[in-house]
């Protein structure tokens, strides 16, 4: 006669506990939260704007100014590389927003460096940090007259050639894109009615056309913002010179 066997029992599951030993609470996933924040571009943009406001209000120490200037230059080079290697403008449709953010960073650092120069200029040439001192020494080549001439040339190239030229290009591109929209929409409708494309392709082309018009319109506004930044940079430089002489 076979012996009766007892069924196998599963071990009791203990409830999850927190660091204090209290059951029923879930542990905080710090890495997951950081990954969520890093994946949300709007959160990173908001943090960047808040950081810019902090730089505008609070005075920065020298080491923070050096780090911020290094980050700004690296960010600008990264934007340039991305813009050079894309195939279509819509591949980098966030470029107007990124350009505005980079311009705001540059304005904030300009004001912060002005505060350091006027407040600590009596301490020496490194009053605003090592980066500004090294760049000024490299451009001036140890001669004040050479520095003034090179600065004037850079102002002319930056404001008259680059800023005004890029602003005009963005304005013309936005105008021609908006003027060509009705014709492109009619062409899409004609291709759809004749059966050359299906409904999904027509919907995709309309969406691309809308994104293109939005992109070039935003670029027109961003170019005007950059032009204002160039004018503000020139005025701030002259204010630094006059204020430094007075102080």
Describe the overall structure.
With 247 residues, the protein is mainly α. It has one domain. 76% of the residues lie in helices and 0% in strands. It has seven helices and no strands. The chain has helices spanning 30-39, 41-57, 62-85, 95-120, 130-140, 144-194, 199-246. Helix 2 runs parallel beside helix 4, helix 3 (62-85) runs antiparallel to helix 4 (95-120) and helix 4 (95-120) runs parallel beside helix 7 (199-246). The radius of gyration is 29 Å and the shape is elongated. The model is unreliable at 1-8 and 14-20 (pLDDT under 50).
Summarize the helices and strands and which ones pair or pack.
Elements: H1 30-39, H2 41-57, H3 62-85, H4 95-120, H5 130-140, H6 144-194, H7 199-246
> How many DSSP E strands?
0
Secondary structure tally, helices: 7
Strand proportion, as a percent range, falls in under 5%
C-alpha geometry = elongated
Question: Kindly, what is the distance between the CA atoms of the first and last residues, rounded to a whole number of angstroms?
Answer: 109 Å
Considering DSSP H and I runs of 4 or more, what fraction of the residues is helical? Answer: over 70%
H/E series: HHHHHHH
Query: Could you give a short account of the major beta sheet?
Result: none
Number of domains: 1
Average pLDDT, all residues: 76
Please compute the radius of gyration using only Cα atoms.
29 Å
Uncertain spans: 1-8, 14-20
């Amino acid at each position: 006669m076979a012996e009766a066997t007892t069924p196998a029992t599963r071990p009791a599951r203990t409830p999850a506990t927190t660091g204090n030993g209290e059951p029923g609470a879930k542990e905080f996933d710090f890495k997951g939260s950081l990954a969520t924040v890093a994946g949300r571009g709007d959160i990173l943009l908001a943090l960047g704007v808040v950081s810019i406001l902090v730089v505008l209000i609070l005075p920065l120490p020298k080491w923070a100014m050096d780090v911020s200037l290094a980050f700004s230059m690296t960010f600008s080079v990264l934007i340039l590389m991305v813009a050079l290697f894309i195939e279509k403008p819509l591949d980098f449709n966030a470029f107007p927003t990124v350009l505005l953010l980079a311009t705001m960073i540059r304005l904030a650092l300009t004001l912060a460096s002005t505060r350091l120069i006027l407040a600590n200029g009596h301490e020496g040439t490194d009053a605003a940090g090592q980066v500004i001192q090294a760049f000024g020494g490299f451009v001036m080549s140890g001669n004040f007259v050479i520095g003034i001439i090179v600065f004037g040339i850079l102002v002319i190239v930056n404001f008259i050639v680059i800023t005004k030229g890029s602003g005009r290009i963005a304005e013309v591109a936005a105008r021609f894109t908006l003027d060509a929209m009705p014709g492109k929409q009619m062409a899409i409708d004609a291709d759809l009615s004749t059966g050359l494309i299906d409904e999904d392709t027509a919907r995709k082309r309309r969406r691309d056309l809308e994104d293109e018009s939005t992109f070039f319109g935003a670029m027109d506004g961003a170019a005007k913002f950059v032009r204002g930044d160039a004018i503000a940079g020139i005025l701030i430089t002259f204010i630094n010179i006059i204020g430094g002489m007075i102080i």
